[in-house]
Amino acid sequence: FVHQIYYWLAFPLALGQVLFLKKIKGGTVHKKSTLRLSDVWNSARTLLRSRTFMGFLAVALLVYCGWEMDWSLYFLAQFRYLHMNEAGISLITVLCAVTQFLTIGLWSRLIEKKGIRFVFVIGAGGFAFCSCFLVLSLIVPQTPGLILYYILQSIGSSAYSAFQISVFQCLLEAIPHENRTLSISIYNTVILLSNTIMPYLGISVYKSLGESRNAMILSIAIIGAVRIFATLAALFRWFRLRGRHDSLIGEEDPETKIS
Question: For the whole model, what pTM was predicted?
């Protein structure tokens, strides 16, 4: 609940930003268009008929759901079971940010060699890795478990930048060429819906198992299994589409055979 307060605080600030930007003069509008409900419906039907997009959406949604399920559980595990304080949380946040920054160049070079879908698999696998090492950190004694957590969390978080740098590019190659902006909005809406549901689902699993250390370990293990399945789905998608170019798959005939 606490983290949602920031969204409520950001809302009036966002409205203020809109009002401020509307007062800025400049630029030329060449074409004024209005969004109609029929446009949304037609774009949604086009997306539903695109096997390339629906395949990507299924994999991406599975990855996001596995990632979002432990958002609240992670903080609970850090404070209650790893006994981390604010300084410890700040330290691991900085370490993760540093590893993500240092590996962006690596993922960019890997995209050039192996393609964006391959790097997307690495990003999904990083989430699964993080769940596995958190379970390990909770199983071992307190002091070595905390040290293990700092080391493996920093390493595993580097894959988050791989996910961020590849997921949007994978979306662009999967959506149809027409009404791309609207299609991206529909995709973002679906992802945001999972964002509102999955954190509560993760907490519900933890509470149903007894709200204990063993319940936390089992909950994270279940989430880890979801993430492993999502990684395998991303790997299957990469293997299935390995004969296609990375750019603009969404513009190709959906019935095109893969070489």
Answer: 0.78
